[in-house]
From TrEMBL, chain A:
GO terms for cellular component: ATP-binding cassette (ABC) transporter complex. It is a peripheral membrane protein. Residues 5-242 form the ABC transporter domain. SUPFAM superfamilies: MOP-like (SSF50331), P-loop containing nucleoside triphosphate hydrolases (SSF52540). It is found in: Cell inner membrane. This is ABC transporter domain-containing protein. Keywords: ATP-binding, Cell membrane, Ion transport, Iron, Iron transport, Membrane, Nucleotide-binding, Transport. The keyword Iron applies. Belongs to the ABC transporter superfamily. GO terms for molecular function: ABC-type ferric iron transporter activity; ATP binding; ATP hydrolysis activity. It comes from Bradyrhizobium macuxiense. Pfam families: ABC_tran, TOBE_2.
UniProtKB/TrEMBL annotation, chain B:
This is ABC transmembrane type-1 domain-containing protein. Its main location: membrane. It comes from the Bacteria. Belongs to the binding-protein-dependent transport system permease family. It is found in: Cell inner membrane; Cell membrane. It comes from Bradyrhizobium macuxiense. Keywords: Cell inner membrane, Cell membrane, Membrane, Transmembrane, Transmembrane helix, Transport. The lineage of its organism: Bacteria, Pseudomonadati, Pseudomonadota, Alphaproteobacteria, Hyphomicrobiales. GO terms for biological process: transmembrane transport. It is a multi-pass membrane protein.
Length: 367, 598
């Protein structure tokens, strides 16, 4: 019932401008949830719509369960209705002129399924999303979160082989978004469906995805398990987009397996992790998460003197601006106590496995 | 929900600013709003209430309230006259014919309008802009001219279409002097009303609603009928009702196509009644009331549909239009657009040109159609030899200008009072100024006739009665058009001027009017054009001194000379084209100046 999705060298060129998708390849094994994550305009939604068949790629190939559904090179283009997939839209796209039940039963009416069987499937789907009591209400009488549940029920009621979700939570308010996000993963895992999920929200991606693919400018930069994305980002952009917003520039002076020594200027040297091949004398940029900066705890080799410039108390955590090597960095300390005063000099330690060095490709590339 | 909250906030802001202004005003200033409202109400009573009241009185008596005195009329007041008229089989027949012709015409209009809005908004048909333009072009054709053109094309004996059929050897015969002809011509010329409603509804619809259906397994065809059309149903229904309402009040088309076969609809029947000798004014008034009631019911229905929940206006979000790839079929949809343009514009225009320049309308065969010796300017010479022709053009333009200036100013005053002030009595002003929506032009004409015919030294026989009737008739459209132009100006711009110490009138003069100028000019232009081509209400109000173009055209037609009729139709079309183009150029210039200034 669930299927693998294979996207090979996908390309989409609109009439003008750079390609919206520029050679994207990935595979989603049966039963896995893959999240495409990236800023707006990165091509993630276009990729999803190509898989759905709503957008027509200009190059590459898409196959679902081994069946090629899009291959402009071979002249293959299977229409959306014959791809046997479900899709949840950002704007819900529930039909306002129908009741909840009419919405959910709609896909079954276009399939050879008996009425009794169809009713059973509708009940099952509605129970799964927790809307059994609302079956006969007009959808316009529901809240946004409930409408999105209707959309979800509608897209899974016929047990499609692949489920596509296009920013399904971004129209909901923050509290609802958190709840539905957790529910969504449970429901998806319960049905065991293969799913491709598109979002710009990294927290959503981490919670929902078995694997996350980070996209930018039509290219897939990295596709890995969430903890790999968070702990070993493939490049500066992925690091920055997933929250490693601090950056230090330096020159690599020595390499030693997975680690190396970087000179940050004025002879201040520190040990960093090398996530891709670099050699001595390479200019590097080092990305660092605010959470991984420990203030006032001299610990290990990478301990430097820093100055606290600013403090913003946020309740369960405190954000500090500190000055290190003449640069302003952000640091976050968890806990309800704000321990450091503005203006004090304090040692900070930077664990070497949290300092990721990348080749310096000129001015800040992610802006 | 969010929207409601927004407007509630607005309401609060309005009230607050009202209070702050009220506090600083002296006693003398508090009198002014009341005087203002009283003046507007008096004006509206004079323009709308009094004529309609007289019409009603006329329908309910067998005397003339103006000539015989109101007291006598009131003493003769009874429903009997009205009931006698309703029981008249001729009235019943006219009503039935009206409903069939307008119903059939509406069905055709919906089919065409819906088809073209789908083609333009939802497909990849080539030259869509051209088809979109063609779809609203018929709005500019005066009904009488359209009727005359189609009479030339489709008359059963001498019609150009039948001549062509005979020449090709097809055993086909069309007869547009029939109910079918009426339905056909109504349908093709009033499709734009449906098109305008449905195309904007389609454009505002979230395309993912249709995509969801397709993903669910529905074919493009099934999607269209289970999702797309049900979703824009409110727009379809209100476009449908509007085209029906407009058709109800049309005189020119049924007058031309119905008369030869003695096919009467309510409008033509009313005119006939007033043209008999002695004229049956009371009966005419009663039938006019009947027409007004039918129209009023439909207007009420349309308002209900419009105010009902509309599915398509979800958010102020702009959607990327979704266009269906039709493949080679897109040339078929393109061809449909071309055919429509051909039928609505090109063929009628050619027919008018042939008839206007040809010495005799008898065409033996196609060879004689291209025989240049048969053509001359004699019809043009003959119509311009008639002093009435130039006079009617002059009169029409004069009436148009008076209507545009006076009507525009009045509509601005009304719109501003309704939408931007809190004076008591503005609801009444709103109600009375919208009333004419439900009164067809012809009925306005009859009502004004009743109201002024016997008043000595009064309006009747002057150019002003025409202008006033037009102002009353087009008041709702003008107020609406003008209101949108200044509703876009943010209230705070005005409040800023008040804070700077300006009074209300000075604020209007220095802030509102300059900013709203393009919209005001456009609304006045529209009013001008509408006034120039108006026939229905002119029919009852002109005298030989105040003859206007549209009436003279009908005169030529009824005189039986097709050549002169066609020639004058062309003159009218060219004139209208020049006037619309010129006015457009003027208001666009104003708009551009405005843009460069801000």
């Amino acid at each position: 019932m669930t299927a693998t999705l294979e996207v090979t060298e996908l390309r989409k060129q609109f009439a003008i401008g750079r390609p919206a998708i520029d050679g994207v390849s990935f595979m989603v094994p049966a039963g896995e949830i893959v999240v495409l994550l990236g800023p707006s305009g990165c091509g993630k939604t276009t990729t999803l719509r190509c898989v759905a068949g709503l957008e027509h790629p200009t190059g590459g190939e898409i196959s679902i369960s081994g069946r090629v559904v899009s291959s402009p090179g071979r002249g293959i283009l299977v229409p959306p209705r014959s791809r046997d997939l479900g899709m949840v839209f950002q704007s819900y796209a529930v039909w306002p002129h129908m009741t909840v039940r009419q919405n959910v039963v709609y896909p079954l009416k276009h399939r050879p399924i008996g009425r009794a069987e169809a009713n059973r499937m509708v009940e099952e789907a509605l129970a799964l999303v927790g809307l059994s009591e609302y079956a006969d209400r007009p959808v316009v009488a529901l809240s946004g979160g409930q409408m999105q549940r209707v959309a979800l029920a509608r897209s899974i009621v016929y047990r499609p082989q692949l489920l596509l979700l296009d920013e399904p939570l971004s129209n909901l308010d923050a509290k609802l978004r958190l709840r539905l996000r957790d529910d969504l993963r449970v429901i998806l895992k319960q049905t065991g469906m293969t799913a491709l999920y598109v979002t710009h929200d990294q927290a959503e991606a981490v919670v929902l995805g078995d694997r996350i693919g980070v996209m930018r400018d039509g290219r897939l930069l990295q596709m890995d398990k969430p903890d790999t994305i968070y702990n070993r980002p493939a490049d500066l952009f992925v690091a920055n987009f997933t929250g490693a917003t601090n950056e230090l520039a330096g020159t690599l002076v020595a390499c030693n397996g997975g680690y190396g020594v970087v000179d940050f200027g004025d002879g201040r040297q520190g040990e960093v992790a090398l996530l891709h091949a670099l050699g001595p004398d390479d200019k590097v940029r080092v990305a660092l998460r605010p959470e991984n900066i420990a203030i006032g705890r001299p610990d290990g080799a990478n301990t430097f003197a820093a100055k606290v410039l600013d403090r913003r108390y946020q309740g369960t955590q405190t954000a500090y601006s500190i000055e290190l090597f003449g640069k302003r960095l952000e640091a976050i300390e968890l806990g309800t106590a704000a321990r450091h005063q503005v203006g004090v000099e304090a040692p900070v330690s930077l664990p070497r496995e949290c300092l990721w060095a990348y080749r310096d490709r000129g001015p800040l590339s992610h802006d | 929900m969010r929207l409601q909250r927004g407007s509630a906030l607005h309401g609060q802001a309005d009230r607050r600013s009202e209070i702050t202004r009220g506090a600083g005003e002296g006693a003398g200033r508090r009198v002014f709003p009341r005087l203002w409202v009283a003046a507007l109400l008096a004006l509206l009573t004079f323009l709308v209430i009094y004529p309609v009241f007289m019409l009603l009185l006329g329908a309910l008596t067998d005397t003339n309230p103006v000539v015989d005195g109101i007291r006598l009329s009131l003493s003769h007041l009874s429903i009997a006259n009205f009931l006698t008229v309703l029981a008249n089989p001729n009235v019943g027949e006219a009503l039935l014919n009206t409903l069939i012709a307008c119903g059939g015409g509406t069905a055709v209009a919906v089919a065409i309008g819906l088809l073209f809005s789908w083609i333009v908004v939802r497909t990849n048909t080539p030259f869509k802009g051209f088809i979109a333009a063609a779809s609203i072009l018929p709005l500019f054709a005066p009904p009488l001219v359209a009727g005359v053109a189609w009479a030339i094309l489709g008359s059963p004996k001498t019609g150009l279409i039948n001549t062509m059929f005979k020449w090709i050897g097809w055993d086909l015969h069309v007869d547009l002097y029939s109910m079918w002809g009426l339905v056909f011509v109504f349908g093709i010329y009033y499709a734009p009303y449906v098109y305008m409603f449905t195309s904007s509804a389609l454009r505002n619809m979230d395309p993912s609603l249709e995509e969801a259906a397709e993903i669910s397994g529905a074919s493009a065809f099934a999607t269209l009928f289970t999702v797309t059309f049900p979703l824009i149903m409110p727009a379809i229904v209100s476009g449908m009702l509007l085209s029906f309402i407009v058709m109800l009040g049309i005189y020119g088309i049924p007058a031309v196509l119905g008369a030869p076969s003695n096919l009467n609809v309510l409008t033509t029947y009313i005119f006939k009644l007033t043209n008999w000798s002695p004229p049956l004014y009371n009966t005419a008034a009663a039938v006019a009331i009947l027409l007004m009631v039918v129209t009023g019911l439909l207007v009420y229905l349309q308002q209900k549909v419009l105010s009902g929940r509309s599915y398509t206006t979800v958010a102020g979000k702009a959607f990327r239009p979704r266009s269906l790839n039709l493949g080679p079929w897109r040339w078929l949809t393109f061809a449909l657009g071309v055919i429509y343009l051909l039928v609505v514009v090109v063929l009628p225009l050619l027919a008018l040109i042939v008839a206007a320049f040809r010495k005799f309308m008898f065409i033996r065969d196609v060879a004689s159609l291209f025989d240049m010796r048969q053509y001359s300017l004699m019809h043009f010479r003959s119509i311009f030899d008639n002093p009435l022709t130039l006079k009617s053009i002059y009169n029409a333009i004069e009436v148009g200008i008076i209507t545009a200036v006076v009507g525009g100013a009045l509509a601005f005053a009304i719109g501003y009072t309704i939408h931007r002030t809190q004076v008591t009595g503005r609801r009444a002003i709103d109600l009375i100024s919208t009333l004419p929506v439900a009164i067809p032009g012809l009925v306005v004409g009859v009502a004004y006739l009743w109201a002024w015919i016997g008043v000595p030294g009064g309006l009747y026989g002057t150019i002003w009665i025409l202008a006033l009737a037009f102002i009353a008739r087009f008041m709702p459209d003008t107020v609406k058009a003008l209101s949108t132009s200044f509703m876009q100006i943010h209230r705070e711009l005005e409040e800023a001027a008040w804070v700077c110490g300006r009074g209300m009138l000075s604020t209007i003069g220095t802030i509102v009017l300059p900013l709203a100028r393009p919209g005001v000019l456009a609304a006045m232009t529209l009013l001008f054009v509408l006034a120039i081509r108006e026939l229905g209400s002119s029919l009852f109000l002109y005298t030989s001194n105040t003859m206007v173009m549209s009436v003279l055209l009908l005169d030529y037609y009824e005189g039986g000379n097709v050549g002169k009729t066609a020639a004058f139709s062309l003159v009218q079309m060219v004139l209208l084209g020049v006037l619309i183009g010129g006015a457009n150029w003027l208001s666009r210039g104003a708009a551009q100046r405005n843009v460069t200034r801000t």
